[in-house]
Specification:
The complex is a heterodimer of chains A (110) and B (890). Chain A has four helices and three strands; from the N terminus they run αβααββα. Chain A is α+β, with helices and mostly antiparallel strands. The radius of gyration of chain B is 38 Å and the shape is elongated. Classes of the chains: A alpha+beta (110), B alpha+beta (890). Chains A and B meet through helix 2, helix 3 and strand 3 of A and helix 1, helix 2 and helix 4 of B.
C-alpha cells in the first residue's frame, strides 16, 4: 500500500481489461498480473474489484468467458474479447486519448 | 440487449451453478495470490492473510458480481415476495380482514363498473357505431320529440350530413302464421334503416325501394332470435308468410344474431304502406342516420337545425305542436341518456365504499407497521437502504391488493348476476352487461392503484422515522409513535366523513322511496289481474264497431269467472311506460261545428276554447275495478250505447284547471284528433286524479271516453278478483281462446306493474343503502381498531395515571374524549361534504330536499352513536387497567 498508488478514474478499469485481453484470452488472475506488470506496479487495483467489472463487461456482451486449464493445470475461467468488445475497445481508447491529450494540453499551457 | 437478457436469465435460473462457478473463479485467484506470497518467502498463514487483504472481502465481491449479473433486482423482488407472503401468513387475522375489506371494495366497484361499462361505455354492436346518430325535432317547449312524416322527408332530402337516414317506430301486434299466435314487437322502418346500421340479412334480402312503395305487397324481416324460436331455424322459409294483425306478410330475410334495434323488436316491416301522414304536427316516428365520412356531430346538428328552422318559418301549421328546431346526438347517448346520471352516482357511491375499505386497510397496515417498527429499525441499522424498505412495503401492499382483488373479481361474478336480477327493466342495454375483458382490466388496474396507494402510504409512514429512535422507542414499547396514532385518527375521521356522505345519500334516496310509496296513486293496486289484448288494427268504422262488440262480449264473459268482482278495460293502464297520448281539445257546441278544416283551425286558434289533456279510452268497469272515485256526475253506463250521444268523464284536475269556478258537467268538447271521431263529447262526470306517469309524477289532466262508443283495437282489461291469480288467468285465457283462438293475450298483476314502476328507485336505494351499511360497518370497525390500538399502546401511561390517583371515570372520559374529537372532526367534514355533494342526486329525489334536515340529523346521530359505541369498548378496557399489571407490561 505504501507504493504510489493511483486511484483509477471511473470507467478506466473497463478500458484496461479490454486492452489487456485484446491480445488473447486470459483468466482473472493473469489479467490483474498483466496490468500490474505493464503499468510497472503503479496501477494497483484492488484485486477483488476486477471481478464485478469482468461480469459487467460480460453482461454487456463485450467479452465472453469459457472454462479452461491454467499454466499450472488448474481449472480457470478465461475471458476474451467479442467482436463488439473489440469495437468498444477502439471507442474507449479514442475517447481516452482525446481526454488525456486535452488534459495534457490544459496542464501544459497553464 | 438480447445477450443481456440471456445472461441475466442464466444467472437467475442456473443460480447454483453460476454461484459455484463464481466461487471457483474467485478461489482460483486467491490461491494464486497465496502461492505468489509463499514463493516470495512468507509463511503460509501470513501469505493467506496478505492475499485476503489484497483481494478484499470475498462475499462482498461475490455480491457485487451478482449485482453486475443483474440477478439482483429480480432476486430481491422474489425475496420481497417471499418475505411479504411470510409476513401475511404470520398474521392471518390481519391478512384476512385486510384482504376481505379490499375484496369487498374492489369487487363491489368492479361489479358496478361492469354495469356502467355495459350500459354507457361499451360501443353499440354495429359497424362504426359512433357514426350513428339519433335525429329529433325540438318542440316549442324545448324538449326533444319524434318526427312528423313531412318533416322527416325534408330532413332526409335536404341534409348534407348523412349517408343514410331512416325513420322507425315500434309497436306490438299479434303475429301468427307458421307459429302459434303471440304478441311481438314490430318495427315499421323506412328503406334506409339497414344501411344506417350497416347490417345485411344473414339469409334472404333486405328491403328494396319497391317493398316500401305505397301499396306494395307486405314483406317482413325477422330477427335471428325469432327465426330460431318460432321458425325453427329453417333455411327455406323465404316464401313463407306471417300473419301480422290479420294481414299476410312474406318473409324476405333473417337479420344476423346480435342485431336488435330497437331493443325487443323481432320483426321489421316497411313503414307507410298505406301512405304517409301529411301533417307536420303528428309526431309518429323516431329517426336515425349514419354520418357521412368526415362530417362531425356538430356539423350534422347545424345542418338538421337549419332545415328544421326553415320548416318552422314556412309551415302553415303554426302552433304548440309544430317543431321549433331540430337536433342530432349520438345514438348511444340517446339510448342511455337517462340512465347515465343514476349509474354515475352509483359508481361514485361505490367508489366511496372502496375508499372507506382502503382506509380500513391503511389503518391496519399502519398498526402493523408500528408493531414492526423494531424490525424496521434493526434492518435499517444493519444497512438496509430506505429504498429497499419502501420496496418491501410496496411488495406487501401489492400482495395484499392482488389477493383482495382476485377475491373481489371472483365476487364480481355473483355481484353482476345479482345486479342484473335487481336492475330495473327500463335500464337500457342490460343485455350487454357482463364480466368482459375491459371489466377485468379495470379490476386489475383498480387493485394496482389501491396497492400503489396503500404501499406508498405505509412505506412513507414506516420509513420516515430515524432508526435509532425506532429502536429506543420500540424498546420502551410504550406510548410512543404519537405520529402514527395521529395519522390513524385522521384516517378514522376521514372514514367517518366519507361514510356520512354515503349514508346521507342513501338516506335521502330511501326517504324519497318512502315518500313515493306513501303517495296516493288515485287507484287500487292489489287484487287486480291485467290482460293485454290486441286485435288487428282497423280503420273502417264498421270493423271498429264490431271490435267494440267483441270486447263487450269478452268483458261479460270475464265477469262470470268465479271470484272476479269487477271487469273493466282501458287503452293504457297507469304506470305503464309511455303512458297515454295527449292532445288538444276544443270547447264547442254542435251549432258551432265547422264545415271544413280551416274552420277547425280557426277554432284551435281561440285560446279560451282549447284545453290540453291525456286521452284515455275506458269502460265503466275500469273505474270500479281500480277504485277511481267518482267525484260528481256519473260514469259511463248502459245509456251510453254506440248510437247515443258520446260522453266523456274528466279528471278532477282537468275540471279544476280548465273550468275554474264552473261546473264542467254538461259542456261539450271536440277531441277528434285523438281517434278520428269528430262527434262531440258531453262531459257527464268528474273522477279522481290518477298518477298515470308514475307515483312520483303529478297527475295529468285526463279525458276518458267510452270504449263502447269509441272502440279501439288494443286494450288492457283489468279484473278485480278475490280469487288467486293463477285460476283467473287460465279461465280468462280459455274465454279468449273460445271467442277467437288467434288472439294472444299477456297477463300481469297490477302489483307487478306497480312494483316495476318503482324499479329504478328501488335499485338505487338498495345499492346505495348496501354501500352505506357496509361503509358504516367498516368505519365503525376502523374507529374501534384505532381506539383499541391507541389504548393498548397507552396501557402503561394509563397505569401511571391510575397509580397517581386517576379514577376509572377519568380514564373513561379521557379515552372517550379522544375518540369524540376524532368523531366530531369526521362528522363535521362529512356534513360539509354532503352539503356540497347531495345536490348531484337531486334529480333522483322525490319530495325531499338535498339538504333534508331530518336525514342529515338522523344519519349524523346514527353515525356518532355507532362510532361512540366503537370507542366505548376500548375505553372501558382502558378504565379497567390494573396499574400494577400495566406498569409491568413489557
Amino acid at each position: 500500500m505504501a507504493i504510489t498508488r493511483i486511484d483509477l478514474p471511473q470507467g478506466t478499469l473497463d478500458l484496461l481489461i479490454l486492452r489487456t485481453i485484446s491480445l488473447g484470452p486470459l483468466h482473472g488472475w493473469a489479467i490483474s498480473e498483466r496490468i500490474q506488470q505493464i503499468s510497472s506496479a503503479v496501477l494497483q487495483i484492488q484485486q477483488g474489484s476486477l471481478y464485478p467489472a469482468l461480469h459487467r463487461l460480460e453482461r454487456r456482451g463485450w467479452i465472453k468467458s469459457r472454462w479452461g486449464t491454467s499454466d499450472n493445470n488448474r481449472r480457470a475461467k478465461y475471458y476474451e474479447l467479442t467482436k463488439s468488445g473489440r469495437q468498444q475497445l477502439e471507442v474507449e481508447r479514442d475517447a481516452w486519448e482525446k481526454l488525456t491529450a486535452a488534459v495534457a494540453q490544459v496542464l501544459g499551457t497553464t | 440487449m438480447f445477450s443481456d437478457l440471456r445472461f441475466r436469465l442464466r444467472s437467475l435460473f442456473r443460480r447454483n451453478s453460476a454461484d459455484t462457478e463464481l466461487d471457483d473463479e474467485l478461489r482460483f485467484h486467491v490461491e494464486q495470490l497465496v502461492e505468489q506470497n509463499v514463493q516470495s518467502g512468507l509463511t503460509r498463514p501470513e501469505a493467506v492473510r496478505r492475499a485476503r487483504l489484497a483481494f478484499g472481502g470475498i462475499d462482498q465481491v461475490k455480491e457485487e458480481c451478482r449485482d453486475e449479473c443483474g440477478v439482483h433486482f429480480i432476486e430481491t423482488l422474489l425475496q420481497d415476495i417471499r418475505f411479504g407472503a411470510r409476513v401475511l401468513r404470520k398474521s392471518p387475522g390481519f391478512t384476512a380482514v385486510a384482504a376481505l375489506s379490499l375484496a369487498l371494495g374492489i369487487g363491489a366497484t368492479t361489479a358496478i363498473f361492469s354495469v356502467v361499462y355495459g350500459v354507457l361505455l361499451r360501443p353499440l354492436p354495429y359497424a362504426d357505431s359512433n357514426r350513428i346518430m339519433a335525429i329529433f325535432e325540438i318542440n316549442p317547449k324545448g324538449t326533444r320529440s319524434r318526427l312528423a312524416d313531412p318533416n322527416f322527408d325534408d330532413f332526409r332530402d335536404q341534409n348534407r350530413s348523412f349517408q343514410a337516414i331512416a325513420k322507425y317506430e315500434e309497436n306490438d301486434a299479434s303475429v301468427s302464421g307458421i307459429a302459434p299466435p303471440a304478441r311481438q314487437m314490430i318495427a315499421d322502418v323506412s328503406p334506409g334503416f339497414l344501411k344506417v346500421f350497416g347490417v345485411q340479412p344473414m339469409l334472404g334480402r333486405g328491403f328494396s325501394a319497391e317493398d316500401a312503395r305505397k301499396g306494395a305487397g307486405p314483406v317482413v324481416l325477422v330477427s335471428y332470435g325469432y327465426w330460431k324460436q318460432y321458425l325453427s331455424s329453417s333455411p327455406d322459409l323465404l316464401q313463407s308468410r306471417l300473419k301480422i294483425d290479420g294481414a299476410l306478410f312474406s318473409i324476405i330475410g333473417v337479420l344476423p344474431a346480435g342485431f336488435q334495434f330497437p331493443a325487443d323488436v323481432s320483426l321489421w316491416v316497411p313503414a307507410d304502406l298505406d301512405g304517409e301522414n301529411l301533417s307536420r304536427t303528428s309526431h309518429n316516428y323516431r329517426a336515425v342516420g349514419r354520418l357521412r365520412d368526415g362530417v362531425t356531430v356538430e356539423q350534422a346538428n347545424r345542418d338538421i337545425s337549419a332545415i328544421a328552422r326553415h320548416i318552422h318559418e314556412t309551415s302553415s301549421e303554426q302552433g304548440d305542436y309544430l317543431l321549433k328546431d331540430g337536433t342530432v346526438l349520438p345514438l348511444q347517448d340517446s339510448i342511455t341518456g337517462n340512465a347515465r346520471r343514476p349509474l354515475l352516482i352509483l359508481l361514485a357511491a361505490v367508489g366511496f365504499l372502496l375508499l372507506v375499505a382502503c382506509a380500513n386497510v391503511a389503518n391496519l397496515l399502519l398498526a402493523q407497521a408500528t408493531v414492526r417498527e423494531r424490525e424496521l429499525a434493526i434492518r435499517s441499522a444493519l444497512g438496509a437502504a430506505r429504498g429497499r424498505l419502501v420496496r418491501q412495503f410496496l411488495t406487501e401492499a401489492f400482495l395484499l391488493s392482488l389477493l383482495g382483488g382476485s377475491l373481489g373479481a371472483l365476487g364480481t361474478y355473483w355481484g353482476v348476476a345479482g345486479l342484473l336480477a335487481l336492475a330495473p327493466e327500463n335500464l337500457p342495454r342490460l343485455d350487454s352487461v357482463s364480466i368482459s375483458l375491459p371489466v377485468l382490466i379495470f379490476a386489475l388496474l383498480l387493485s394496482t392503484a389501491v396497492a400503489a396507494g396503500l404501499g406508498a402510504f405505509t412505506a412513507a409512514r414506516a420509513t420516515s422515522g430515524n432508526p435509532r429512535q425506532g429502536l429506543t422507542e420500540g424498546a420502551r414499547g410504550q406510548s410512543g409513535s404519537q405520529g402514527s396514532q395521529r395519522v390513524g385518527r385522521i384516517i378514522a375521521a376521514a372514514q367517518i366523513a366519507i361514510t356520512l356522505v354515503l349514508v346521507i345519500g342513501a338516506g335521502l334516496l330511501g326517504r324519497s322511496l318512502m315518500k313515493v310509496l306513501q303517495v296516493n296513486p288515485g287507484f287500487r293496486v292489489d287484487k287486480i289481474v291485467t290482460m293485454d289484448v290486441s286485435l288487428p288494427w282497423v280503420e273502417d268504422p264498421k270493423a271498429k264497431a264490431s271490435q267494440g262488440i267483441f270486447f263487450s262480449n269478452l268483458i261479460d264473459r270475464l265477469k262470470q269467472i268465479p271470484g272476479v268482482r269487477k271487469v273493466g278495460a282501458a287503452s293504457v293502464l297507469p304506470l305503464i311506460e309511455g303512458g297515454l297520448p295527449d292532445g288538444m281539445f276544443v270547447l264547442m257546441t254542435q251549432n258551432e261545428m265547422p264545415k271544413n278544416l280551416d274552420g277547425f283551425n280557426a277554432l284551435f286558434r281561440q285560446k279560451e276554447r282549447i284545453g290540453i289533456a291525456d286521452f284515455c279510452v275506458a269502460t265503466d268497469g275500469y273505474f270500479q275495478a281500480l277504485g277511481i272515485p267518482l267525484i260528481r256526475g256519473r260514469i259511463f253506463d248502459e245509456r251510453d250505447g254506440a248510437d247515443s250521444p258520446h260522453v266523456a268523464v274528466i279528471s278532477e284536475s282537468l275540471a279544476r284547471n280548465r273550468w275554474p269556478g264552473q261546473d264542467p258537467i254538461g259542456h261539450t268538447i271536440e277531441f277528434g284528433n285523438m281517434d278520428g271521431d269528430m262527434r262531440l263529447l258531453t262531459i257527464v262526470g268528474i273522477v279522481g286524479d290518477v298518477r298515470e306517469y308514475g307515483l312520483d309524477a303529478p297527475p295529468r289532466p285526463t279525458v276518458y271516453v267510452n270504449l263502447f262508443q269509441r272502440p279501439r283495437s288494443a286494450i288492457t282489461l283489468t279484473m278485480l278478483s278475490d280469487a288467486d291469480t293463477q285460476p283467473v288467468t287460465s279461465a280468462a285465457r280459455g274465454i279468449l281462446r273460445d271467442l277467437n283462438p288467434e288472439i294472444p293475450a299477456k297477463f300481469q298483476t297490477f302489483s307487478q306493474i306497480y312494483s316495476a314502476s318503482l324499479g329504478s328507485r328501488r335499485f338505487n336505494v338498495i345499492l346505495v343503502g348496501c354501500f352505506g351499511i357496509v361503509a358504516l360497518l367498516l368505519a365503525t370497525a376502523g374507529v374501534f381498531g384505532v381506539m383499541a390500538y391507541s389504548v393498548s399502546r397507552r396501557t402503561s401511561e394509563i397505569g401511571v395515571r391510575v397509580a397517581l390517583g386517576a379514577g376509572r371515570a377519568d380514564v373513561l372520559r379521557m379515552i372517550l374524549g379522544q375518540g369524540l374529537r376524532t368523531i366530531f372532526v369526521g362528522v363535521a367534514i362529512g356534513i360539509a361534504g354532503s352539503l356540497a355533494l347531495t345536490h348531484t342526486v337531486e334529480s333522483l329525489l322525490f319530495d325531499v330536499t338535498p339538504t333534508d334536515p331530518l336525514t342529515f340529523g338522523g344519519v349524523t346521530l346514527l353515525l356518532i352513536g355507532a362510532a361512540l359505541l366503537a370507542c366505548y369498548f376500548p375505553a372501558r378496557r382502558a378504565a379497567s387497567v390494573d396499574p400494577i399489571v400495566a406498569l409491568r407490561y413489557e
